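ok so heres the complex, two chains, lmk if somethin looks off
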Amino acid sequence: MAYGSRAVLRGVSCAFPPGTISVVLGGSGSGKSTILKLVGGLLRAQAGQVVVGGRDITSLSESQLYGVRRRLGMMFQNGALLDSLSVLENLSFPLREHSRLTRDQIKTRVHERLAAVGLEDVDDLMPRELSGGMVKRVALARALMQDPEILLVDEPFSGLDPLSTKLIEALLVRINRTRGMTMIVVSHHIPSTMRMAGHVVLLLPGSVVQGDPAALRSSEDARVRRFLTEDTDASEQILAHTHEFEAGEHAPVRRGGA
Amino acid sequence: MLRLLRRLGRPLGKVIEQLGRIAAFTGHILAVTVHPPLRLREFVDEVFKAGVLSILIICVSGMAVGMVLGLQGYNTLVRFGAENSLGAVVGLSLIREMGPVLTALLTTGRAGSAVTAEIGAMKATEQLDGLRMMAVDPIDYVIRPKAWAMVVAMPLLSALFIVAGIAGGYLVGVVLMGIDSGTFLSSLENAVDFDDDVAGSILKSVIFGTLVGLISTYRGYSATPTSAGVSAATTSTVVLASVSVLIFDYFITALWRV
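and the predicted structre for the whole thing:
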């Protein structure tokens, strides 16, 4: 895969186990988000194969890809909420497009999903009126609206304070456990990654290392240890101030919350 | 010679490539147009943005142009003792030429540039990718209503411009210069033919609306997803659409004598 003359993801081969949270790690520009876009069919691989649910999607037309995407949900880094629609309309949107549910049924489903991410009373808010953490949670709720089999999550912790980071992490873990959903998470955040991931894919220059977090921690590859340790040290310092926070203790946050 | 051909060939190739892309883009819009859902709500919203929000600038500009035409026309015609034909001069100038062309130029600057900027911003903030991940075609949901709204709004705005212009010409000719009101109106009524003049004016407006709608949506959709890219796309919409309108105006006039 290349952007113009700049090649990314040359010779990369990785798999994401079903029902598991897989986290893709790597330096900036290593192609982490590109992997998500390839899985979602938003980018076309110039060579090789991208297999989703046993089906090679590299040769599918755009209209065929829409069929594949109905089984996927994606939480974008900056939310990608439709800024002309309210929160309720944003979350209703995929169901209005693809289901025959009545308006009341859709509204009920929206409120269920919002409650699942700890939000209520935000129906009429516009995306510009939401805080960074709320945008992420609304985006997560929207990605879950159609009960996807695979959830793609792009940088869920970027730009968030430590409390919001832990909250999003807890939400992802809970969704994975309760629904058995396959998740592919792109992240820079090593502490969260090591807590939540069942499988880690680390993109290094010229190679890919993958396995469970414990195996990566004890890897004999110095580059792997350095990548995990340096980031962990920096992040642990921040998280040290948030030890009183326990995932799952948060009551639903009303307007103005993170 | 070979070098010259090579030098000419590259930009020519790019132009042909762009034309091909625009043709494919147009084909895509037409293809989604004949498929349900109709997206009436989005279409009405876009007609409101392109049409209703342009009414003030169209009326003010039309009135000003009509007043100038009335004044210049009167000063010219009075030399030949033909000032009683002022209604015909003002009416025909506005209906056949100035109404459709100036409306298209004004609408390009006000609504066309806004359309490009809005679509470009949606692209830069991944809203279009968000739609694709929800298995919704952005050309169907975003582009189609905007392009068709321009086609529908343009003749209506042009008609408004012409009416405001005739009112401006009447004000100058009758109220300021003292031409008899009945003479002005009968001259206008006798000179204007529906088939030759009014239908031709509508045809021009529809073609200009199609041009502005296509160019503004295409430039937004193909914009580089950065703030500089969106800015460049907006500028190029205004330039390209304005020049295209003027060139097409000549050919429509020459080919169909309207």
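quick notes: The mean pLDDT of chain B is 95. thats all i got rn
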